[in-house]
Amino acid sequence: MAGAVDPGRWHARLQGLIAEYEIPGASLAFLHEGEVHEFAAGVLNAGTRVEVTTDSLFQIGSVTKVWTATQIMMLVERGELTLDTPVAEVLPEFRVADPEVTKTVTIRHLLTHTSGIDGDLFLDTGRGDDCVEKYVQACADLAQNHPLGVTQSYCNSGFIVAGRVVERLTGKVWDAALREQIIEPLGLTHTWTLPEDVLRFRAAMGHMDGRPAPAWSLMRSCGPAGLICARPADVVAFARAHLGTGLLADPRAMWEPQVDVPNPYAIGKQWGIGWILNEWEGRLIVSHGGNTIGQAAMLWMVPDSETVVCLLANGGHTAAFQQALATELFDELLGLAVPPVLGPPAEPFETDVERYAGVYERAGTRMTLTVRDGGLSLLAEATGALAGLQPDLAFDLVPVDDTTFVGRPEGEPQWLSAVFYELADGSPYVHLGVRATPKIA
After folding, report:
1. 386 pLDDT more than 70
2. Runs of H (alpha helix) within 116-260
3. I need a labelling partner for 8 at 20 to 30 A (CA). Which of 14, 167, 320, 332 fits?
4. For residue 339, what are the CA distances in angstroms to 323, 336, 420, 433?
5. Burial of residue 83, with CB atoms counted within 10 A of its CB: 0-12 exposed, 13-18 middle, 19 or more buried
6. Residue 26's pLDDT is what?
7. At residue 92, what are phi and psi to the nearest 5 degrees?
8. Is the pLDDT assigned to residue 125 strictly greater than 60?
9. Is there a contact between 418 and 404 (Cβ–Cβ < 8 Å)?
10. Strand, helix or coil at 35?
11. Which residue, 347, 363, 345, 341, is CA-closest to 413?
């Protein structure tokens, strides 16, 4: 039953769960009934064995996107632009490969992952204050993953462009604008974006296969899409500001559903402005996750109870860890059941898998689907800048219904879901890992 928080129990549970899911270290903070509770367990780096403390900084990855979306919304509320302002109106130099998209893509498209711009361009444009500006120049060659506005596909590139919009309208580099707009007004002492600032604190190292990752961080140009480092309590304070008017006059405008996610089984059913939207037992859940090089973050809000939870980890089976902790914690705090992850059906489901065989490709990833022994097998290969930092994934797909499949890479405790679908013009796609990938062969 829902009830009071037992700190000793949660300290022990965090330790137990990191052992179960092979997590080197994790930190948890949650706001419940007006009080913030903080817990830490494990080590920041398996090489140095430095312990995680509640004020240790982890990379929050793509949770950063909600901060960038909030920066844009603050500028919208000041009347400096609208969500439907074309990007080119603010950034006349902006270009992508499709000239029509160059002219018509809007701020709303960027913040809802509906631009169709190939989203996984990871490009090192240096450590200078012009790195985001240089990144936007490099977007001139980016092709369309799907036509503008017709579906949802996760787009890191779009958020970096949004960060450049912030720079243009504030006259400050993104990191400085973030400090001025959000970090300092909220009094956040443990939230930073640059490694030379993070170095002043205990900081987590990402891990892959149980060992420290080959690189600590993504390139600085990725800042507006995923380079905030913070302790969980600071992330909770940021989310708490969205429950009132701490940053925005109308933060709930960011929770208005903008687009349905074609695969609703992964992280949520819809996207708002920056936020992911879901329902658990009929209650609105507002969330965002993030993954960097061997680190994983998750932020959940249950607005009707003003409950906020942030969980940060530095390797291991993070998706299963997040699911297990959330299931237990939300039940204890609110008597709220977290939906289980979609797995194989109780009775085998027969469907024609031949139609889904082929090659699916977008920037950063090539997926080859082949039919073996009457079933569908997937090989996902990272391409481009992250090819050496992400292992190939290979696993069999099990049909749940005619368009929905689940699969589990070897050694992973948690199932992944894939949904095959067609756009209005009949183009075939697979939606996996919150991204739409077109069939090319």
Report:
1. no
2. 131-138, 156-170, 174-178, 195-198, 223-226, 232-241
3. 320
4. 9, 9, 22, 18
5. middle
6. 99
7. -60, -25
8. yes
9. yes
10. strand
11. 341
Q: What is the pTM (predicted TM-score) of this model?
A: 0.97
Q: How many residues does the chain have?
A: 441
Strand, helix or coil at 175? Answer: helix
Question: Residues near 324 by Cβ (< 8 Å), separated by ≥ 6?
Answer: 17, 20, 21
Q: Measure Cα distances from 441 to 30, 159, 360, 368 in Å.
A: 47, 30, 7, 9
Mean pLDDT, the chain, integer: 96
pLDDT tens string 333-379: 999 999 999 999 999 999 999 999 999 999 889 999 999 999 999 99
Smallest Cα–Cα separation from 363: which of 160, 144, 46?
Answer: 144
CA of residue 49 relative to chain centroid, distance: 28
Residue with tokens 């500028």: 75
Q: What's the number of CA atoms in the CB half-sphere (13 Å) around residue 205?
A: 17
| 141: Cβ contacts below 8 Å, ≥ 6 apart | 97
Stretch 95-109: mean pLDDT, rounded?
A: 98
Integer-rounded Cα Rg, in Å, for the chain is: 21
Q: Which two tokens stand for residue 441?
A: 């062969």
Q: What are the DSSP E strand ranges found in 76-217? A: 191-192, 207-208, 211-212
Q: Which position has the token pair 């450049």?
A: 164
Burial label, 335 (beta-carbon count in 10 A; 0-12, 13-18, 19+): exposed
Count other Cβ atoms within 10 Å, centred on residue 79. 7
C-alpha span between 234 and 230 (Å, rounded)? 6
* 251/66 Cα distance (integer angstroms): 11
Question: Can you tell me the mean pLDDT for 395-423?
Answer: 97
> Can 377 be counted among the known catalytic residues?
no
Of residues 56, 62, 115, 417, which has the active-site annotation? 62
Indicate the residue type of 311: L
199 vs 29: CA distance, rounded Å: 22
